[in-house]
Write a structure and sequence with these properties.
It contains 24 helices and 18 strands. The chain is an alpha+beta fold. Strands 4, 5, 6, 8, 11, 16, 17 and 18 form an eight-stranded mixed beta sheet that branches. A three-stranded antiparallel beta sheet has the order 1-2-3. Helix 8 runs parallel beside helix 10 and helix 17 packs antiparallel against helix 18 (435-462). The longest helix has 37 residues, at 2-38.
């Protein structure tokens, strides 16, 4: 008996050792995410207008003091306990239901338990109650995935574990946990499905696991309607599990699960709300097909839509009013919506591959950030639209790796396809025809398909409206794709040591080439676009400018460095309450304009003389200043992408101003800097003069990474990067480089 007990104890100890690495990884995931979200001020994602579809439908309502839901993250809400925990409110507004509501409903139970022990009011609801559910499932999912590699070497396990922590715990992903968005459920369930799938392969079946698998497939499919094709693929993989075992009950459960999943998916497809289908079709046409189209009328005719509706090109479904045509009357509804479908839109793009490529490039550009850069991370204890920077190594690496470049994306897809072909050949010709290996290949195909589907569907199915947020599915699956490719390449290199030497040589050559390229600077024969020039001084320091435009009579200069930091406007003279509190984004009356054309200009004139040119500049207006506009019919659209910052600027509300010193407007930044391949990033964030046109206080700025966001005009620590025009110099010396800029001897 003692021997038997000893053997059993030894076996248990071995099992614990076997699973210790996966257990430690799961615990590490939990701890890292909790620290990221809750160490110091709680962080999460603000509302972009979708919360009524999620929280309010589950009787979770904002508190009265939640004044700025678009600009602050709010952790605390209140729930209506007179309604059942699992009851969904389908009254009024746009009815919507989703299987991922189960997480919201369970979180209400967590909040009730927390309120009981913390002695809070019982109707208080905390978003962290939802986050803790996601975090627990997420941690378990990653532990399950790590458990599937328990037979690998310690170095391999450490490498994979570190990669999982860096990528999957990045705040870009985990911020979604502290929100009501369906993306959190999508991400958690995708990883959970992967973990369960690997567990079924390990066990060669598993009756309980197959039930869990299909439940996860159903909820994943409904977490966002774009997940339905992916859910179908996972369902097909589920059927393949029957090749792992001869267990009849497992077969019965598998077939039953598959049939149930098919029925659930069919129900989901048929339950897509009419309003949602209508608004996405509207945006897919007028904010998608017709965006930047040279032939809007011909495009509409190709879709079977009356060409007279070309008048509403470049409008989306959430303007609320101001459309040139009444899109709410019965004539428009009857003439447009019955004639447009997602299949028609797909056919349109397939027949026009060059237009299709353009849209995919736009999709790629909007996948720079994991979580959308127009959603705030902090609550009212910080400035509005404040972002967190806690655990974002992977977010920065993604940008360095150009994961938002369509050519790079295509390259990865090609690599993934080649790996699939190679492994299929190996499976077919060189290996025993093992079903578990075949299932892994199907899983790889599903990841490729999931990434491709989520690259294409958002812009084709919904146009460019809210595109950055809709790219999350692509980002999530593409990151898994990239990790899979790297892991496969690493494994191939490990098996062939000669590859390691080749890689070292290639990396060394790239580094040497990059270093030498950085040493070479173009010399200029005369002051021309791209060259640097000394002009004036500020606070005793000589100012160096870059020439960003040259018309042979005048030079347009942009400061090479941020000259100071300060507010765009204090709001001191404002009559509007919001502007008093947060400052005004009206360039014409801003404090920064007065300072640039006053004290700052005075110092330059003192050194250089009065040879600055008055520039006629177009300043865009917020909706609050519509009455001041001299041209345009709607607010300027927002995008964080520098290449598209002048998005529909021709139709935007605008007014002409005359200044000698000014901040660049977004369209000027694109025209003179971005389009000329000049560097627009600086050592810190700096103001543009472009307002965030949906309110009267926020102003756009260029972030350190080069993308364009917005903050209140009253923010104090924003860089000031002035621009001005001067007469073309008659005499000058220098090379025009940053180290040896031109010096002006005399002006014409």
């Amino acid at each position: 008996m003692e021997l038997k007990a000893f053997i059993e104890k030894t076996q248990i100890t071995e099992k614990i050792k076997e699973k210790s690495f996966s257990l430690i990884t799961g615990i590490a995931v939990f701890i890292i995410i909790m620290l990221v979200l809750y160490q110091g001020d709680n962080i999460g994602l603000s509302d972009n207008g979708d919360y009524p579809r999620f929280a309010y439908r589950n009787y979770i309502m904002p508190l009265e003091k939640s004044e700025h839901p678009f600009y602050y993250y709010y952790d605390k809400y209140e729930m209506n306990l007179e309604k059942g925990i699992f009851e969904v409110n389908m009254d009024g507004g746009n009815p919507y239901n989703s299987p991922h509501f189960i997480f919201l409903q369970l979180s209400k139970i967590v909040s009730i338990i927390n309120n009981y022990f913390a002695q809070n009011l019982m109707n208080e609801y905390f978003v962290s109650s939802l986050a803790i559910i996601y975090i627990l499932i997420y941690s378990v999912s990653i532990a399950l995935i790590m458990d599937s590699i328990k037979n690998r070497s310690l170095l391999q396990k450490l490498s994979i574990g570190a990669l999982m922590l860096i990528v999957l715990c990045d705040q870009g992903y985990t911020l979604y946990f502290n929100s009501f968005y369906g993306e959190a459920a999508q991400m958690v369930l995708s990883l959970f499905l992967l973990g369960v799938l690997l567990k079924i392969l390990e066990k060669k079946g598993g009756r309980v696991w197959i039930i869990i698998y299909y439940l996860a497939v159903i909820i994943l499919s409904g977490s966002k309607f774009t997940n339905i094709p992916i859910g179908i693929l996972f369902g097909i993989i589920g059927l393949m599990f029957m090749g792992l075992t001869k267990d009849r009950l497992f077969w019965i459960l598998n077939i039953g699960g598959f049939i149930t999943t098919c029925f659930a998916v069919w129900m989901m497809i048929n339950s897509i709300p009419v309003w949602m289908d209508d608004v996405t079709n509207y945006q897919a046409v007028f904010f998608g097909v017709l965006r930047n189209s040279d032939t809007p009328e011909a495009d509409l005719e190709a879709l079977g839509v009356d060409k007279k509706y070309a008048a509403i090109a470049d409008t989306h479904g959430y303007l609320g009013g101001g459309y040139p045509i009444n899109i709410y009357d019965e004539e428009f509804k009857n003439n447009f919506y019955p004639n447009v479908s997602k299949f028609k839109l797909l056919k349109f793009y397939i027949e026009r591959p060059e237009r299709f490529w353009e849209k995919l490039e736009i999709s790629a550009k909007n996948s720079t950030y994991i979580s959308p850069p127009y959603l705030a991370n902090y609550g009212p204890q910080k400035d509005r639209m404040e972002f967190a920077h806690r655990f974002e190594l992977w977010s920065k690496l993604r940008m360095m790796l150009k994961f938002d470049n369509l050519s790079v994306i295509i390259m990865y897809f090609v690599a993934a396809g080649l790996i699939l072909i190679i492994e299929m050949i190996r499976w077919f010709f060189y290996r025993e025809k093992r079903m578990d290996v075949f299932i892994i290949l199907l899983l790889w195909l599903t990841i490729i398909a999931g990434s491709g589907i989520n690259l294409v569907i958002p812009v084709i199915g919904n146009g460019e409206a809210d595109l950055a947020k809709h790219m999350f599915g692509f980002i999530h699956y593409f990151d898994m794709l990239a990790i899979g490719i790297w892991a496969w390449v690493g494994n191939e290199i490990r098996k062939n040591p000669i590859y390691i030497k080749v890689c070292i040589v290639v990396i060394a050559l790239v580094l040497i080439f990059t270093f030498l390229t950085g040493l070479i600077q173009n010399k200029y024969l005369k002051p021309d676009t791209g060259a640097y020039i000394k002009y004036g001084s500020f606070e005793g320091q000589e100012l160096v400018w870059q020439i960003i435009d040259n018309n042979n009579n005048e030079l347009l200069l942009l400061s090479a460095n941020i000259i100071s930091k300060g507010q765009y406007d204090t709001g001191f003279k404002a009559e509007d309450e919001e502007r008093k509190e947060f400052g005004s984004n009206l360039w014409e009356g801003s404090d920064i304009r007065r300072w640039l054309n006053g004290p700052f200009l005075d110092e330059i004139v003192e050194k250089e003389g009065d040879n600055q040119v008055f520039s006629e500049i177009t300043s865009y207006l917020s909706i609050k200043d519509k009455s001041r506009s001299e041209k345009g019919r709607r607010p300027l659209y927002w995008t964080y992408v520098p290449e598209a910052v002048d998005w529909e600027s021709e139709e935007a509300l605008q007014k002409i101003n005359y200044d000698r010193v000014f901040l660049l407007e977004g369209s000027e930044l694109k025209k003179y800097v971005v389009n000329n391949n000049l560097e627009h990033r600086r050592e810190d964030d700096y103001w543009l003069r472009t307002p965030m046109t949906s309110n009267g206080s926020m102003v756009r700025y260029v972030a350190e990474d080069g993308n364009i966001f917005h903050k209140d005009a009253k923010v104090k620590d924003m860089g000031i990067l002035p621009a001005m025009r001067i007469e073309y110099p008659k005499e000058y010396i220098g090379e025009g480089t940053i180290k040896e800029p031109f010096e002006i001897i005399s002006i014409r």
